[in-house]
Amino acid sequence: MSENENNFETLRQLLALKRHEIPPPGYFEDFSSSIIARIRAGETAQKMPWLLRFLQILESRPAYPAALASSLCVLLLFGIVSVEQNPEFASVWGNPSSNYIADLNPTAAGGNPAMIPMVDTNSPSDTASLFNTQPNPLFTKPSFSTGN
Amino acid sequence: MTMTMAEPIERNEAEVTSAPAEEMVLVNRARRGDLKAYDELIRRYQERIYATVYHMTANHEDANDLAQEAFIKAFQALKSFKGGSSFYTWLYRIAVNKTINFLKQRKNRQHMSLNDIDFNAEHDPDLVALISDKTPRREAGLNELQEKLNAALLKLSESHRLAVVLHDVQGLSHEEIANVMHCNIGTVRSRLFYARQQLQALLADYLKAT
Fold first, then answer.
1. What is the separation of C-alpha B92 from the centre of its chain, rounded to a whole number of angstroms?
2. What number of C-beta contacts closer than 8 Å exist between A and B?
3. CA distance A120 to A118
């Protein structure tokens, strides 16, 4: 037991060495100010609008925007593949000979504007067909003749 | 600024306990968001909190991060501080819990980053007595002893290491340690005993008598 106690005493002496391990000079001079700065930064962050906080999170963790970009790419790729495989989509968006596209885009009609049906905007029936409404019976075409 | 961690803890304790009312005023002001008051509280305890975390981790960078986080967490949790124990004990508990959680997470990747030994070490009576003996530790320089001692401490379990650090290095009483570790005094004594035994076995070469 006494040997044990003697060893404990030697161990206690050796442990005294730990008390002499000190951080770099001046370390504690800035310690509290850096904690206060971090507390202030945290408080400011809480008062910030959610969008700015969200952007800050993205900035501090680059993995998040990378994941977001990758998922957008996957989504885009999936969209393209489904458009190509689905004939309904393809007839509207994928096939340039579609009438709908041709109606909107003269170049889609073989690049010949003459092939596109012209609409006479002065004719009530044509205007009606353009806006998909019935011709107004009260509407009369104005005449600019002098009556001679 | 010359600063040493060898400052007797008892003296600091006396300073702290002599003005508990003043400390409570600071705590109440900090609770209302007064950062100047909290700055004063940080300055009072920064060295002891840092030292405890450092002796537990044997890594300056980790100790810096953990000590700062402990103070930030304490500020955020000030509203929950009821004053049942002293602010100092409560703060210590936060720092110790944070450190133990950290150590459990990095269990298999312990990396030492030791601080330098101050020049006062050569004049410390304990160390003078230790090194002047004709033993293997005489040949080993202080730096080698420091490395061996820290490596041995890291081999202890967190609770055993904490008991040794708080008692034999920081100079806390058994009762204070029991408050910090949330256990009874008997448990503290038994942990201290087994921790010392383990350290003796690990440092046998350096503890041999002449």
1. 9
2. 121
3. 7
User: What are the chain A neighbours of B142 within 8 Å (beta carbons)?
Assistant: 17
Per-residue pLDDT tens digits for A85-134? 876 665 655 555 555 555 555 555 555 555 555 555 665 555 555 565 56
Give the separation between CA B32 and CA B34, rounded to whole angstroms: 6
Nearest 5°: phi and psi at A48?
A: -70, 150
ipTM tops the 0.85 cut: no
Is B39 part of the contact surface with chain A (CB cutoff 8 Å)?
yes
A39: contact with B, CB 8 A cutoff:
yes
What global pTM score does this model have?
A: 0.66
Write down the pLDDT at residue B9. 43
CB spacing of A22 vs B118 below 8 angstroms: yes
Distance of alpha carbon A65 from its chain centroid, rounded? 10
* Residue B200 to residue A8, Cβ atoms within 8 A: yes
CA distance A84 to A90: 6
pLDDT value, residue A29: 93
Query: Which amino acid is present at A26?
Result: G
Span A41-58, pLDDT tens digits: 887 777 767 777 777 777
A45-66 per-residue burial string, b: 16 or more CB within 10 A, e: under 16: eeeeeeeeeeeeeeeeeeeeee
Window 41-80 of B: residues touching A by CB (8 A cutoff) are 42-43, 46-47, 50, 54-55, 60, 64, 67-68, 71-72, 75
